[in-house]
Amino acid sequence: MSPILPILAALLAGVGLATQSPTNAALGRSIGSVTLAALISFAVGTAILVAAWLSFDRTPLATLKGAKPWMFVGGAYGAYFVAAAAFAAPRLGLASMLTIMIASQLVAALVIDHFGLIGLPRAPVTWVKIAGVALVLVGVVVVRKG
């Protein structure tokens, strides 16, 4: 696989993430419920994933027996993220919300990488990584004040 493909996938996901929050916030304002907007977002995403699974993947559902219970919690994180973003975006502004979320994601990622949590290989924290995250944290302050 070309090394550019994961980079492009991540770039497109970032654009989608930035677009998802205001889209869900607009839906939430339109219907009067952030929770229902998040539910609709997940329902649409679920429908797309079911179609993709049926079209391209078809991994047997029986393989789920091998998964540990904690491995199913990812959907809860996603549900919280979508609802929190739909709630926070119109109140903080998209740039502020995203910089805060990205900063917290990077801090969590450093901890997860350093200890090799959740099945990932260990990638020890270095001063360079800490400096990078510190710059993002400075960016949060700059964006919030801007």
Automatic annotation (TrEMBL):
Keywords: Membrane, Transmembrane, Transmembrane helix. InterPro entries: YdcZ. Pfam families: DMT_YdcZ (PF04657). It comes from the Bacteria. The chain crosses the membrane at residues 34-56, 68-88, 94-112, 124-143. One of its GO terms (cellular component) is plasma membrane. PANTHER family: INNER MEMBRANE PROTEIN YDCZ (PTHR34821). This is EamA-like transporter family protein. It comes from Sphingomonas spermidinifaciens.
